[in-house]
Design goal:
The protein is mainly α. The chain folds into 2 domains: about 220 residues, no CATH class; about 220 residues, no CATH class. The chain has 20 helices and no strands. Helix 3 crosses helix 9 and helix 12 packs parallel to helix 16. The longest helix has about 35 residues.
Length: about 500
C-alpha cells in the first residue's frame, strides 16, 4: 500500500507541475487549464459518441447469435490495435527524462514507483483517447448483447482490454528500448525506433489476423492463438466462464508486471539527441527573418522525433505495400498510403514548445527581432517536405494511391501542418513534462480527425471539388488561430526575458 501511495503522490505531483507550467506559458490560471482539460475530455467523449452513432447506423439489422462472437472478436481486435498504436506514439513522443525525475532521484522513491507515477496521467489520457477512437466497439457490444447484464459485462471486458494493451505496450517498449541501448549498443534515438518498430510489430501480429481475416462461424478446434488478449476478452464479453475470466485476469497481472519491470530500467541521463543535420549551413540572407528561419529549420530537423519518423516511414510504406496483397484490406490501402505523407508535418506540434524558452533572445540581443511564427511555420513545412516527398513519390510509383488523389493528399498535408502548429501553440511541448506531448498530440488528433470527418460528411452530396475548398478554408482558419495564439505568446516574451 505504501508503494501505491507513493505512485499516487508522484502522479498527482506530475499533474500539478504540468498544470502550472501550461498556465505559466499561456499566461492564464491553473483553474482555466483544468477547465480546458475537462472540456477536452468532453469533446473527446462527443467525438467518440459521433463515431458510435455513425457505426450504429451501419449496424441496423439484428445480429444472428452465431455471428455475435465473430463480430465482437473482430471489434475487440481493432480496439486492441488502436490502443497499442496509441501507446507506441505516447512512448516515442515523450521526453527521455524529466526534471521531476531528477528531483525524485533524491527522494526515497524507487525507480519503478517514480516512473509509473509519472506515466499514470499519460496512461489515463491514452485510455480516454483509445476509448474515443474505438467507440464503435461499444456499439457492437450494445447491439449484440442479449440484455443489460451482457452489456455491462461486455463494456467491462472492453475497458480492461484497453487498459491491458496500454500497460503491456508501454512496458514492452521500455524493455525493448533498454535492450537496444544496453544489448545492441544503439544510440538513444535509434533505440527508440527499434523499440517502436518491434512494439508495433507485436501489436499487429496479435490483432491483424482477426481484423483482416475474421474467423468463420463454422471454425472449430483450439490453438495457442486463442489465448491472445483480444480473443480472451472478447470471449469473456460474449460468454463469460471461469476459464476466460482466469486467463483475462492473468493478462491483467502480466500487463502490470511487464510495466513494473520496464519501469525499473534506467532511463537515459539526458534527453534524446537528434542527428546533427545541416551542419555547416548558413542563413540564405543576413537579416532577422532568414536568421529565424535557419534556426527553426535546424531545430526541426535535429528533433529526435524527426529522425525516428524518417526511420519509420520506409517501413510504413513497405507494410502498406504488403497489406495490398491481402484481399480483405484492399479498401483501406489508399487511405493508409495517403496518411503516410501527412505524418512528417504533424511533427510541427512540438515546434513551438522546443524554442519558446529562447524566443526573447533576438529581441534582447539586437533590440528587435522578426516575428517567429511565420519562419517557424515555413521551417516546419520545409522539414516535413524533406520526409514527405520521398514517401509520396514511393506510394505513387508503387501504385498505392492514384495520381488523381495527389491534390487531396497535399491538402491533407497542409491541414496537418497548420493543425499541428495551432495545437503546439495551445499546449506547448515541454522536455520536462511528458503529459504535454500527450495532451498536445491528443488535441492534434482530435482536431484533425474531426475536421476531415466533418468535411467528408458535409460534401457527400456536394459538387466535385467542394471538399478541397473546405480543406483550404479550414486550413486558413487554423492558420489564423495559430497567428493569434502565437501573438499572445510573443506579447509575453519581455516578461520571460
Amino acid at each position: 500500500m505504501n508503494g501505491l501511495r507513493r505512485i499516487a503522490a508522484v502522479g498527482a505531483a506530475s499533474l500539478v507541475l504540468w498544470t502550472r507550467e501550461v498556465a505559466r506559458l499561456l499566461g492564464t490560471t491553473t483553474r482555466a487549464v483544468r477547465i480546458g482539460a475537462a472540456l477536452g475530455g468532453v469533446v473527446a467523449a462527443l467525438f467518440g459518441l459521433a463515431l458510435a452513432v455513425v457505426a450504429g447506423q451501419q449496424l441496423t439489422a439484428e445480429v444472428p447469435e452465431e455471428l455475435r462472437s465473430s463480430l465482437v472478436r473482430t471489434s475487440f481486435a481493432a480496439a486492441a490495435l488502436t490502443a497499442g498504436l496509441v501507446a507506441v506514439v505516447l512512448c516515442v513522443s515523450a521526453p527521455a527524462r524529466t526534471a521531476l525525475q531528477n528531483l525524485l532521484d533524491l527522494l526515497p522513491v524507487s525507480r519503478a514507483e517514480a516512473r509509473i507515477g509519472q506515466l499514470a496521467p499519460v496512461l489515463g489520457a491514452g485510455l480516454l483517447y483509445s476509448a474515443a477512437l474505438t467507440s464503435t466497439s461499444v456499439v457492437v457490444i450494445v447491439r449484440t448483447s442479449p440484455g443489460a447484464g451482457g452489456i455491462v459485462l461486455g463494456l467491462f471486458a472492453y475497458a480492461l482490454l484497453l487498459m491491458a494493451v496500454l500497460l503491456l505496450t508501454v512496458g514492452l517498449f521500455s524493455l525493448l528500448q533498454t535492450a537496444g541501448r544496453a544489448g545492441v549498443r544503439l544510440p538513444a534515438t535509434y533505440a527508440s525506433t527499434f523499440a517502436g518498430v518491434l512494439s508495433i510489430a507485436a501489436v499487429l501480429g496479435a490483432t491483424a489476423p482477426d481484423i483482416l481475416a475474421p474467423p468463420s462461424t463454422g471454425a472449430a478446434g483450439w490453438s495457442p492463438g486463442e489465448l491472445l488478449p483480444s480473443r480472451i476478452f472478447a470471449r469473456a464479453a460474449v460468454s463469460f466462464d471461469a476459464g476466460s475470466a482466469a486467463v483475462a485476469s492473468g493478462w491483467m497481472l502480466l500487463a502490470a508486471l511487464v510495466l513494473w519491470v520496464g519501469s525499473r530500467q534506467r532511463s537515459p541521463e539526458g534527453t534524446r539527441a537528434g542527428a546533427p543535420l545541416l551542419r555547416g549551413s548558413r542563413p540564405l540572407a543576413r537579416n532577422p527573418w532568414f536568421g529565424r528561419l535557419w534556426v527553426e529549420l535546424l531545430v526541426a530537423v535535429r528533433n529526435p522525433q524527426f529522425l525516428v519518423t524518417a526511420l519509420l516511414l520506409p517501413l510504413g510504406v513497405a507494410a502498406v505495400a504488403a497489406l495490398r496483397q491481402v484481399p480483405a484490406a484492399m479498401l483501406i490501402v489508399p487511405a493508409l498510403a495517403g496518411a503516410l505523407p501527412v505524418l512528417p508535418f504533424v511533427l510541427a506540434v512540438q515546434s513551438v514548445g522546443r524554442t519558446m524558452a529562447v524566443h526573447w533572445v533576438p529581441t534582447l540581443a539586437a533590440g528587435s527581432g522578426a516575428p517567429w511564427r511565420w519562419p517557424k511555420a515555413l521551417a516546419a513545412a520545409i522539414a516535413g517536405s524533406f520526409l514527405a516527398l520521398p514517401v509520396l513519390i514511393a506510394v505513387l510509383a508503387i501504385g498505392l494511391i492514384p495520381v488523381a488523389q495527389l491534390p487531396d493528399v497535399l491538402l491533407r498535408c497542409l491541414l496537418g501542418l497548420v493543425t499541428a502548429l495551432l495545437c503546439g501553440a495551445v499546449v506547448p511541448y515541454s522536455e520536462d513534462q511528458p503529459l504535454s506531448a500527450t495532451v498536445g498530440g491528443f488535441l492534434l488528433a482530435l482536431l484533425y480527425m474531426s475536421s476531415t470527418l466533418a468535411i467528408g460528411w458535409a460534401t457527400r452530396s456536394a459538387a466535385p471539388g467542394t471538399d478541397r475548398l473546405l480543406f483550404v478554408a479550414v486550413a486558413i482558419v487554423f492558420a489564423g488561430l495559430f497567428a493569434v495564439v502565437a501573438a499572445r505568446h510573443a506579447s509575453r516574451e519581455p516578461g520571460r526575458a
